[in-house]
């Protein structure tokens, strides 16, 4: 076994020990195909009010501009799937990924451990950890690293585990053994396209972010557009619809990360409790949660928008 292969085996074993669902590696290079797609997506305004998507265009496409001497992108997936759901079928709904502690913190800690391990076991290795915190195209690198394929809903799908997992990267200046991209297994299926409440999946493998419920309920800070009233299917934070209908998610298995377990009160809250939500309850139930991104005022706005007469 050559040195690159030995290092790769070592890193993947440690990633597994840290609880990552899978680990794949690709050569740090310019994302040529994605450059064309990103430019077109931005030009058509499909990022809505997410102006930050226009920033650092070159860095999004080339990790060597983020890490000096970068040679490898280590892509990692961390499972967050749970079969548990909110008990009141009429209660405003939250995406599964936000049930527990904010994944940014959970994954960043694991990435720091992995980088420390690499430096301790191999020697002087430079690198940076990324979890949505910098202009890195997670799904592109995960696809190149063999973690899965880009589905028609533009989420990354893995044949063995579906799509309920977070993505993160370590970009390091070490030559490793590289994985091959996974084949596409969507076939003729269009369930995600057919089920999307706001028709945000504008075509197979194309997402109009400016129409996505996740965009509206998390990213958009302004008033929600009246034209979409009645189309949110009771989602108040995020949306899992395109994942819930995906046939590959029948293979999803419950996560084993305690930090992703929901607050004891979260899943039992009834519709009326959500509509009468106080800032004190919001702070308690969502302490350390990704839901804090939308703030109390944002969540109240979203809940109000779900009412039939749209009275906040």
TrEMBL record:
It comes from Anseongella ginsenosidimutans. It is found in: Cytoplasm. Belongs to the QueG family. GO terms for biological process: tRNA queuosine(34) biosynthetic process. GO terms for cellular component: cytoplasm. Pathway: tRNA modification; tRNA-queuosine biosynthesis. The keyword Lipid metabolism does not apply. The lineage of its organism: Bacteria, Pseudomonadati, Bacteroidota, Sphingobacteriia, Sphingobacteriales. Coiled coil: none annotated. Catalyzes the conversion of epoxyqueuosine (oQ) to queuosine (Q), which is a hypermodified base found in the wobble positions of tRNA(Asp), tRNA(Asn), tRNA(His) and tRNA(Tyr). This is Epoxyqueuosine reductase.
